[in-house]
Design goal:
Layout (H helix, E strand, L loop, with lengths): L7 H14 L12 H8 L3 H13 L3 E4 L5 E4 L4 H18 L4 H22 L2 H14 L5 H14 L3 H17 L9 H17 L3 H22 L8
Antiparallel strand pairs: 1-2
Helix pairs in contact: 1-3, 4-8, 5-7, 5-8, 5-9, 5-10, 6-7, 6-9, 7-8, 9-10
């Protein structure tokens, strides 16, 4: 291999990756057989197998055995994607010393919009789940219990991309949040604001839901700063 030239298996993997990401190969679709890939690419069996291992490590393909087996394009795994993003964002936040203002900017840009969309798109089942989340959080004084309410709103917005964007930010915040430093009325105020936001969503009042969410996020940002919960890089 000459300097600067990619190994053959990486070239094959890159070509197949591009065909998957472009939609030429759809989720669940079987890829060409090993023999077909050898013939079409002019590479050896070991090169093709190494390319497949590379794509499998990226969760883009999976292989099954038997008469109906083969290598197939993987369907998106939301949990795996979210976990990968959470780890990446946490590392980036540490490396760049991301501040509470920057983290909360992301939440303002996504959650205020999500509250408005949720008022239009929420279902009765989603409202029931939201109510259970709020009722459950009333008994808790930790970040995770109250975070779930926000995740329910993101889900009710009908846009899964909003959930993917916010979940890593929640993870960074949760790792830097020290619950026992919260003022005595912090959780009570959060709970009251959650109920007001939920009522606006249930009434399908998108403008009120967005306004209440914006004020809620501003308040908890100020609370984070006052408690100095998020002033140091992620450890």
């Amino acid at each position: 291999m000459t300097k600067g030239k990619l190994p053959a298996y990486e070239v094959v993997a890159a070509e197949i990756r591009q065909r998957i990401l472009s939609g030429e190969f759809a989720p669940g679709e079987r890829l060409p057989s090993e023999a077909e890939l050898i013939e079409s690419s002019g590479n050896s069996r070991s090169t093709i197998r190494e390319a497949m291992r590379t794509l499998a490590s990226e969760n883009l393909v999976y292989t099954t055995r038997g008469t109906t087996g083969g290598t197939f394009v993987a369907s998106p795994d939301v949990a795996a994607i979210t976990s990968h993003l959470e780890n990446s964002v946490t590392l980036m936040a540490a490396a760049l010393s991301v501040t509470v203002e920057q983290l909360m900017d992301v939440r303002q840009l996504t959650e205020v919009h999500a509250a408005g969309r949720a008022a239009h798109h929420r279902t009765e089942e989603q409202m029931a789940t939201m109510r259970r989340s709020v009722d459950s959080a009333a008994l808790e004084t930790d970040y995770a219990g109250h975070q779930d309410f926000h995740m329910q709103i993101l889900h009710a917005s009908g846009n899964p991309m909003l959930e993917l964007v916010c979940a890593p930010v929640f993870r960074v915040l949760s790792r830097r949040f020290v619950a026992d430093r919260a003022a005595a009325d912090f959780w009570e105020a959060s709970q009251a604001e959650h109920r007001a936001i939920m009522a606006a969503i249930e009434s399908r009042d998108s403008l009120t839901a967005m306004s209440l969410m914006q004020r809620h996020l501003h308040r908890i940002e100020d609370a984070y700063k006052e408690m100095e919960l998020l002033t140091s890089p992620v450890s």
